[in-house]
Amino acid sequence: MASKNVEVYSGYTYGERPIALHWEGERVPVVEVEARWREPSGVGFRVRTGDDRIFDLRYDEASGEWSIDPQ
Q: Is residue 19 part of a domain?
């Protein structure tokens, strides 16, 4: 399943695990989820990409929007 800028695997619930993100016009596959957390507004993930970049991804359940923050 794809959102505007984050593609996720959804099994039992939406957004169980990010599989790719779209950053600066490029589709970047996620190779590892380093951390997962719950916030009042939704879920967050720290991910590592194939080119060894790290991003924090946050999903706001109320708006249905993802945010991407490079680390």
A: yes
Q: Which among 49, 71, 41 is positioned nearest to 58, based on CA atoms? A: 41
Structural domain harbouring 64:
6-70
Q: What is the pTM of this model?
A: 0.89
Q: Which two tokens stand for residue 68?
A: 């991407």
Specify if 1 maps to a domain: no
Backbone dihedral angles phi then psi of residue 26, each to the nearest 5 degrees: -125, 140
List pLDDT tens digits, range 9-63: 988 888 889 999 999 999 999 999 999 999 999 999 999 999 999 999 999 999 9
